[in-house]
Amino acid sequence: FESICMAMATLSTGGFSTRDGSLTAFASPAMETVIIVFMLVGAINFTFHWAIFHGRGWRVYSSDPEFKYLIAVALGSSVILAAVLVQSSGTDTLESVRAGFFTSVSMLTTTGFYNSAPSSWPLFTTLLMIVLALIGGCTGSTAGGLKLLRFSMLMKLVRRELKRLPHPSAVLRITYAGRVADESSLSGILTFFCTYAI
After folding, report:
1. In degrees rounded to 5, what are phi and psi of residue 34?
2. How far, in Å, CA of 95 to CA of 101, rounded?
């Protein structure tokens, strides 16, 4: 029963545990490893999973920039979080890597599981976890947040506007996956972000 409940809470990125202590109550690295994999599966665009089941091959994942962003942000934030935990808490390196990787993926996918007590961690880790939860997973997934597509386009929009400061009349195009983004889509992303921030 617990396995079924945890599987559903993981894949749906809902994060509801059958026990009060989330995954600290289980204290199982094997369980955490499986949950990490399926939290990432839940945070990937579900149309890609559908395409895989209909014979389009594994390249649908690698062809999408948003999938690459998800993996890069998950790995990057995991390394940062693990390094901070090793330096600040003085815990075992392997334990810090385990806690850092699990927590980063859990927050990025907005699942919210935890496998250690983050209340004792430094303030920086809390800020990093909030940023990861705000970014969220891929569009078309069950993860919450802004979504990596919108966040990446927002960063490109900011970079374009900074480049325009010395050259206000410059025509600079923003591309995503080899296509030029139209201005109405960029305006919609900016509006969504402002509304989300409020």
Report:
1. -65, -40
2. 10
Q: Could you say which DSSP state residue 109 is in?
A: T
Nearest-Å Rg of the Cα atoms of the chain is 19
66-112: pLDDT as tens digits:
999 999 999 999 999 999 988 887 778 888 899 999 999 999 999 99
Token representation of residue 49: 């999973």
DSSP state of 115: S
Coil, strand or helix: which one is 180? Answer: strand
Q: 110, 144 in Cβ contact below 8 A? A: yes
Contact 13, 43 (CB under 8 A): yes
In the 8-state DSSP scheme, what is residue 175?
E
Cβ-contact 135, 109 below 8 angstroms:
no
The tens digit of pLDDT for each residue in 132-177 reads 999 999 999 999 999 999 999 999 999 999 999 999 888 899 998 8
Question: Is residue 12's pLDDT more than 90?
Answer: yes
Spatial CA neighbour of 15 closest among 53, 56, 43: 43
Work out the angle at residue 108's Cα, subtended by the Cα atoms of residues 102 and 114, and round it to the nearest 5 degrees.
35
Q: How many angstroms separate the CA atoms of 180 and 188, rounded?
A: 15
Query: b/e per residue, 74-95, with b = 16+ CB within 10 A?
Result: beebbeebbebbbeebeeeeeb
Give the N- to C-terminal CA distance of the chain in Å, as an integer. 40
